[in-house]
Amino acid sequence: xxxxxxxxxxxxxxxxxxxxxxxxxxxxxxxxxxxxxxxxxxxxxxxxxxxxx
Length: 53
Prior knowledge:
mainly alpha
């Protein structure tokens, strides 16, 4: 075992990858919350317009 290499040190890349994945998921959830809020606002406006008729 003269030329045996130690295992690669990839812990930093794993942490960075998990950070990117979790950050993407957080952005997606925020996007869903904003879309839901806007949809709810539009629905309230449409119901108000329907009641005025």
